[in-house]
Amino acid sequence: MVRTGQPARRAGLLTATGLYLTTFAELELSPALCRALAAEDYSRPTPIQVQAIPPLLDGKDVLGCAQTGTGKTAAFALPVLAHLEDDGPQKGKKRVRALVLTPTRELAAQVGESFDTYGRFLPFDSLVIFGGVNEKSQIAALRRGVDILVATPGRLLDLHGRGFVDFSDIEFFILDEADRMLDMGFVNDVKRVLRELPKHRQNLLFSATMPPPIVSLAGSFLKDPVKVEVTPQSTTVERIDQTVMFVDRPDKKRLLRSLLSDRDIERTIVFTRTKHGANRLATFLDKGGITCAAIHGNKTQNARRRALDGFRAGNITALIATDIASRGIDIDDVSHVFNFDLPNEPESYVHRIGRTGRAGRSGVAVSFCDPTEGEYLRDIEKLIGMDIPVVDDHDFHCAAAVPPPRAAKSANSATSGRSAKKPGTGRPSRRRPRGGRRGGANAGRTSGSGSTTSRESAARPARDASRPSGGGQAKPAGATQKPAGSRRRRSSRGGGGPRR
Ligand code: AMP
Question: Which CATH number among 3.40.50.300, 2.40.50.140, 3.40.30.10, 3.30.200.20 corresponds to the domain 240-370+374-419?
Answer without folding.
Answer: 3.40.50.300
